């Protein structure tokens, strides 16, 4: 099975590495939303957010915060987004989990096209119950 992020981690493919520790590597996204858009990736091949062991996830969050701070200090954008796409329907295209961190600027014309819904009377509780019952 080939994976571009595993290839970057092993040094087989090039990347502009920004941060690395024993569990995480972080590098520039090759097709950035804005210049300085960075990916934070666990060194182990985990497919999505729910697949990562919790200690690796904590390392990933730790690294994400370091990198976000460095983006803010180094590039001085007006803000930043942190997000991850999980599953094809959510826009995931590389199936090795990663966090995106992208700088944002006032008036940068980047918008999520949302069609916000309204719950009908009892629906809100029904949805909450379906999710709540799965929490141990
Ligand atoms: P996603 O669509 O959320 O799975 O994000 C995958 C991201 O990986 C995209 O933003 C791509 O631009 C980025 N990407 C794919 N190949 C490479 C690569 N070789 N080096 C850096 N970033 C990459
Ligand atoms: Zn991989």
Low-pLDDT runs: none
Q: What is the number of E strands? A: 5
Which percent range fits the helix content? 25-40%
Order of helices and strands: HEEEHEEH
The structure class reads: alpha+beta
Spatial order of the strands forming the largest sheet: 1-2-3-5-4
CATH class: Alpha Beta
The CATH H-level homologous superfamily: HIT-like
CA-atom Rg in angstroms? 17 Å
Any ligands, ions or cofactors bound here, and which?
adenosine monophosphate, zinc ion
What does this molecule look like?
The chain has 136 residues and is of the alpha+beta class. It has a single domain, classed as HIT family, subunit A (2-Layer Sandwich). The chain has three helices and five strands, in the order αβββαββα. It has helices at residues 4-10, 54-75, 123-132, and strands at 17-20, 24-28, 38-42, 79-83, 99-104. A hairpin with a 3-residue loop joins β1 (17-20) and β2 (24-28). The radius of gyration is 17 Å and the shape is globular. The model has no long low-confidence stretch (mean pLDDT 97). Zinc ion binds at residues 3, 5-6, 45, 96.
List the helices and strands and how they pair.
Blueprint lengths: L3 H7 L6 E4 L3 E5 L9 E5 L11 H22 L3 E5 L15 E6 L18 H10 L4
Antiparallel strand pairs: 1-2, 2-3, 3-5, 4-5
Adenosine monophosphate binds next to loops.
